Predict the 3D structure of the following.
Amino acid sequence: MLKPVNADTILSKYGKDKLGPVAYLPANAKTGTWRLHRPVPDNAKCSRCHICEKYCPCAVIVVAEEGCHIDYTYCKGCGICVEVCPKKIIQMIPENSQKEVL
Amino acid sequence: MNIMQNQTRGKHLFHGLTSCEGCAMELVARTVLDILGTNTVVLTPPSCSAILTGFSRETGWHVPSFMANLEAVASYASGLRTGLEVLGKDKVNVVGYAGDGGTVDIGLQALSGAIERGHRIIYICYDNEAYMNTGIQRSGATSLGAWTTTTPGGKPTQRKDVPQMLLAQGIPYLATASTAYIDDLAKKVEKAKNTDGPSYIHVHAPCATGWRFPAHKTIDIARMAVQTGLWVLYEAVDGRLKITKEIKNFKPVEDYVKMQKRFQKATPEMIMELQRFATEGYEKLAERVENV
Ligand SMILES: Cc1ncc(C[n+]2csc(CCOP(=O)(O)OP(=O)(O)O)c2C)c(N)n1
Ligand code: SF4
Ligand code: SF4
Ligand code: SF4
Ligand SMILES: [Mg+2]
């Protein structure tokens, strides 16, 4: 994904005092921890139509050759992808049913 | 236009923004920046979009952004635009990204002034129909019958139609758009980008938190607003009006209303009035299209 801005470089370039009220750190809340349900696509049935990618408010979906890939570090679990998928192949699964999460 | 069908979708805003799950405001912002690209400066007022501009040393935009005040986003944008022109940087897109409260109420005179002066700015209003950031107070854009913390019995009056006000004033490019029709929104942003003068896009952006519905319904509700005729998608190039999403079989307003808890206090008369507003509103617009 995006390269975070290097705060040290910026601070040394402009000097801490001269920077003023400037934001130079990328917002990076781990919003995946908000999730109660996890969207899981069935990529065997995915038509690669990109609709989920287009409507995910957090832009955490990438549809590629392998199918629909979701970045669970940031996915907030809103379920919009489930609703907009024309093939209805994304399922919401309770987080605590996933062993790896525990 | 399938500009977004690649891995760069939404990349001009960072991940990990703390807007609510399913937030249409966030989706609209990402879409707008997908089209405008990095040669862009964004101004936001205090509102939910301030989440994108960030707090303290943090920012959500991967382009320069600036916090204006609620009254004057369009004035800040005018000044910034003029300054950039003086510096010879006239290719930079200057965008105001404000909520309905900051647009149709508090920032209206600044917006009207900027349009009158003819600055080349792109003003996008994401309309979640209330002052959400401060706790769901009614705005001039809140629907008739809708509950907010300041209209506990349902709002007694109809929303004001700011796109039509601005059209009456005269503006080179104006459009309405919806979170449910992302490709249509993208096309309109592209047109705004290529407009030599002020442009305005008013995007209907449902808010699960303030309208009281489950977040996964955000897109369905936005679509239903269009399919009932309550929110009409149109654009006007130099005042010439064109409906961009014609509706043949209207869904009843009742279907839209019952998807959201905010209409629970609305009386049957209010719902009837909303239905009339939808039907007549669409017809009136359609007539004007034929008359030009
Ligand atoms: C002049 C002024 N009045 C009130 C406020 C307090 N305030 C901050 S955010 C906000 C809500 C803005 O609502 P809207 O523009 O609809 O954006 P939303 O929060 O819904 O995204 C208000 C009233 C302010 N910052 N400035
Ligand atoms: S649940 Fe919401 S945030 Fe997560 S991938 Fe689906 S649309 Fe995106
Ligand atoms: S919307 Fe559904 S079918 Fe289309 S790419 Fe996404 S998961 Fe696959
Ligand atoms: S209150 Fe509404 S507009 Fe504001 S961040 Fe939450 S969902 Fe988005
Ligand atoms: Mg608002």
The longest strand of chain B covers residues 93-99. Chain B has eleven helices and nine strands.
